[in-house]
Amino acid sequence: MGSSMKKKISKIIAGVLAAVMTVSVMPVYATDDVFESIVEEESDNAVTEPAEEDGNTEDEVMPSYFEKELLQLSKISETDTSITISWSSINNADFSHYEILCNGIAANSGITDTQYTVTGLSGGNEYGISVYAYDADENVIGMSETDYFYTDWNISSNTVLTSDKVVADLFINGGTTDLNGYTLTVKGDVYLGTGTSTTYLNINKGKLYAEKNFYMQKTNGYYGEGYLIMNNAEDYICVNGDFTVYTYYARSTLTDGIIEVKGDFTQKSYNYENNFVPGGNHKVILSGVGLQTVSFSDIESRFNILDIRNFSADGVVFTTPVTILTLNRNGCNVVFANGEQSGWTLEDDEIYTGDLNLSTGTLDLNGHKLTITGNLVHSGGTVLVNGGELEVQGDYRVQTLNGENYTTSAGV
Which of 104, 116, 174, 306 yields a CA-CA distance of 20 to 30 A from 296? Predict the structure, then answer.
């Protein structure tokens, strides 16, 4: 059998084996029948090679394909036009070089390094990448499974989704991005408002899943010009990491839908303190599995409905005063800043010893008398007298305690 025939058979068998390896972890063995069928199929058009000097046809031994080494492939980084990968080096004395395939097409062949950057790609797309190892006779002696990776997506103008989409990192630099009822999955971080112009993300009955963090700010940590539009009950954002609001203006429109966050929630402002003011039926869910912290730089910003579903022992800790119109604790551990606490309904006359810092919810006297032996700091929430009586033996401050200073209150 000639060398060209052997190389062709080698690649055919390697391709079949690679496909099987992708769907099964069971070992695959190349039998004599497999080789015979391939050789028979190719023999009709094959050119007969000259006999050796001793008159005998060359007797070649085909490589053992079931002994191929499996290469472990991983991604190092990506941009909107490239993906950098690395893989485990092959442990074979006959090794000659590697070949990298992208979507089944050779991207490079003849390299000996175990790292390569595939270039010339398009932003926001999926690519299947695999690596083959060859010996000097072009026999496949090792291979990786085909792994699928994604490029970053940079958006700088009006964009409307027409199908579900998966990307690496998402950078919305300009225009309005409309999910249009589809699902956008981001394997990395979301940056909304990284450009110099006003930018919008309209969820529009769609879903956005961020496997890492969601930043409404520039990539350098400065305030951004990106704003959210959520006006439908179907609107949904799920963030496995942290959610940060740090915008110049207060141009987000949040009247419905859900933002679910499993990391920390942070609000900061540069010029407009009320840059996060959801209303209507809009809800934020905190559903982490460990400690989550909440920090607001401005009480003019707020939660509309805050639903806490973090059932861990650490729960949710508010490191600053936060305005919350409706709080659902669901029995979760919640610690408020400055000893704040949410309201409750009296079932009998009560004496509250010390200072009470009411920050959220409704304190309903419900026809009973509440005596507070210290101060009542009414930083948020509602005091509902409701036929009852309130006696405060210290000061009654409709203000917010921020450190050692008192500021504006959101309470009524």
Answer: 174
